[in-house]
Amino acid sequence: MKGKEETIKDYQERINLVLVHISEHLDEKLDLEKLAAMSNFSVYHFHRIFRAYLKEPLGAFVTRLRLDQAARLLEFTEDPVKEIAFQVGFEAASSLNKAFKKRFEITPEEFRKTKKALIPFEFIHSNQEIMDIKLKPQIKEIKEKKVIYIRSIGDYSGESTGQTWARLWDYIKLNKLFSFGMESIGISHDDPNVTETEKLRYDACVTVKKEVKPEGEVGIKSIAGGKYAIFKYKGSYSNLADVYNFIYRNWLPSTDYELEDQPCFEKYLNHPGNAKPEKLKTHIYIPLK
């Protein structure tokens, strides 16, 4: 019989598998029995365990992710609402319209018009005193990256994110996973302008070369290779939301590039414990088709 700590680790591993699958298959019909089987829980218990870990029911979680993704596509692409509905797993535009209005209190088209008008093109120049960002990114093909990660849920700039990184590095030290060229990478899955702060999903990731198995809250996944626009930013992490606003609302529309349906990510070149906020160096990777 497993001890309490082993059981907790086991549950976390199984929930992680489901979370990754859901994130990667939002455009598909997600079958409850299949998800339960993947986690090796009965359907009856899967619902309750999932709610306990995520603090919301499975159906509400999936719908929220789909609507958040729809909001990002409305804001940063010109895709028709009908096409966006299919991309995020709704069977019809009318279904998306109904769910979207219930969540955001406006229609998808109204949301698109409002968001497009938020920030003027001169935004980056008027905020140069708080940002140091290279306005022309490097366009580069990168290879797939294998990472171990721990997920944090909550304010991106809150204590939970720092604590997540501390636990991940403790795991690396304990398991002697240090190797030359390791990269510290952050994946912010949600837009803080859209998703409630207490539900923001962030993955603290470190690249690994050794063979590692999932253990408790520590999961394993790959960051997709391919073409990326790489922006070099120096400054406080608290300004990253503004940097992303510039990239998506100013830089992207002025180019011929289209976004690939993959998460963007941040590579951290130094550490808050060793550098002042204004001296922190971050490379922001935006996936392109």
Order of helices and strands: HHHHHHHHEEEHEEEEHEE
Q: Overall mean pLDDT score? A: 86
Look at the helices and sheets and give the structural class: alpha+beta
Tell me the major beta sheet: 9 strands, antiparallel
How many H/I helices? 10
| Distance between the amino and carboxyl termini | 50 Å
Number of strands: 9
Fraction in helix: 40-55%
Radius of gyration over C-alpha positions, nearest whole angstrom: 20 Å
Global geometry: globular
Low-confidence stretches: 117-130
Proportion of beta-strand residues: 15-25%
Account of the protein in words:
The protein is an alpha+beta fold and 289 residues long. The chain contains ten helices and nine strands. The protein has helices at residues 4-24, 32-39, 43-54, 58-76, 81-87, 93-104, 108-116, 123-126, 159-174, 240-251; strands at residues 132-133, 138-142, 145-153, 184-188, 201-207, 219-223, 226-234, 265-268, 281-288. Strands 1, 2, 3, 4, 5, 6, 7, 8 and 9 form a nine-stranded antiparallel sheet that branches. α1 runs antiparallel to α2 (32-39) and α5 (81-87) packs across α6 (93-104). The radius of gyration is 20 Å and the shape is globular.
